[in-house]
Task: structure prediction
Amino acid sequence: MKLILLGAPGAGKGTQAEILSKMLGIPTISTGNILRAAIKDGTPVGLEAKHYMDAGKLVPDEVIIEIIHERVAEEDCKDGYILDGVPRTIAQAESLEKAGIVFDHVVSLEISDEVIMDRMGGRRVCEHCGASYHVVAVPPKAEGVCDTCGCKLVRRKDDEPETVRARLEVYHKKTEPLKAYYAERGLLRPVENQPTVAENSEAILRVLGR
Ligand code: AMP
Result:
């Protein structure tokens, strides 16, 4: 099964990708997490990506395309994977298509900008493994500590309100056109935002026919 999770920043892609990954037994590939790890390790890709990310802008397509093609070629991807936060532009989608990668479903998480602005203030991520939490909606078992690896939870710099606004603008302009792109290919599965994480997972599984 090869899935794409589309949706605005803060729509819950990361949270749902982790749940689905466990249920379906396939890895999640998050370009955001890969880039954050590259920044932490001080690699050339990290150095290039950092200023785009801090400003809420997209990292150039060439950089993302190289990362994603390398990652999907790894052994653990042979039975499928979930793409979280990629593709984010038509150029990225076309590059995956050109490589002959066929997706089963493109799930689009539908949520208003207002709800996202409210939600982002409470988001925390693990600085080690990238798992995401929310102080109210998805709290960790122990405050400030990741359930999975025990490392510290932090607020991402790009979750500041000004940056979130910039990221929403970028989403509407550059990423939202992917909905029409995948609808034309008969793959788009819109899922309206639900009150809880569990209900969102159920709604996604329904559109996947599970
Ligand atoms: P995310 O964790 O998916 O919200 O990504 C955080 C930031 O990483 C984004 O705001 C972009 O700056 C960058 N990024 C992640 N994935 C992509 C992508 N597919 N294309 C371009 N930039 C990306």
Summary: The longest strand covers residues 2-7.
